[in-house]
Amino acid sequence: SSGINAEYGGTGNLTAKLLEKAKKVIAFEIDPRMVAELRKRFMGTPYMSKLEIIVGDCIKSEFPDFDVCVANMPYQISSPFVFKLLLHRKFRCAVLMFQKEFAERLYAKPGDKLYCRLSANTQLMARVAHVLKVGKNNFKPPPKVDSSVVRIEPMNPMPKINFVEWDGLTRILFTRKNKTLSAIFKSKTVIELLSKNYQIYCSLNEIMVADDFDIKAKIDEILTECAFNETRARTMSIDQFLKLLERFNANKIHFSS
């Protein structure tokens, strides 16, 4: 199968292993000096015809078509890389190494200490599984923290939702993930945002707003209907977030204007 390999700061050891197994390897490399080293290493070998090198930043570059993604990710681009990969969609699976705590956030379950917005956003779009822990002493020089390898498989089909709306909801809920939803939606900032969005939505869709309309009462009604008043974001499953978003949107309450 074709593979995409994003190796940073190495000498091509991961690329070499992939070339032994894959029909084709597409390697991203941002450092021109390392590009020269990669070409020098595989020049004159049977592997050279299977290797395509894209010079540049993989976050800013368009992804080619591929089946499997393998990468050892620097911490500073871990989150943008994961979401760029998941939005790309057209691949079978990814096997990625991250700093241990970042990896644990990706596969954390509702109720886990590390369960957060990153967990919910990732698991909305993919199945994530822990593969193995990699101790820091496996590297030379050793980094300050351990790493973990995870396997990511995109959901197929993807949930049919407005991702801007989803992002708006989870951003609000995980900002205070230990508070009850009832408390979060009583916040002046949240009420003002939802009230403004409600007015805009009704105006754009030529819907009359009743003089006695009370956004606070409507929010409370939705939370009660879903039995989420005393629920906390840190314990909510993806299905519960989706249910809550659907009920808000069905009542013309939106999280993006």
Account of the protein in words:
By secondary structure, this protein is of the alpha/beta class. The chain contains 10 helices and 7 strands. A 7-stranded mixed beta sheet has the order 3-2-1-4-5-7-6. Helix 1 links the parallel strand 1 (about 1-5) and strand 2. Helix 9 packs antiparallel against helix 10 (about 240-250). The longest helix has 17 residues, at about 190-205. It is elongated.
Brief account:
The chain is of the alpha/beta class and 257 residues long. Helices cover 42% and strands 18% of the residues.
Protein topology:
Layout: E1 2-6, H1 13-21, E2 24-29, H2 32-42, E3 51-55, E4 68-72, H3 78-88, E5 93-99, H4 100-107, H5 117-125, E6 126-134, E7 147-154, H6 163-175, H7 181-184, H8 188-204, H9 215-226, H10 238-250
Parallel strand pairs: 1-2, 1-4, 2-3, 4-5
Antiparallel strand pairs: 5-7, 6-7
Helix pairs in contact: 9-10
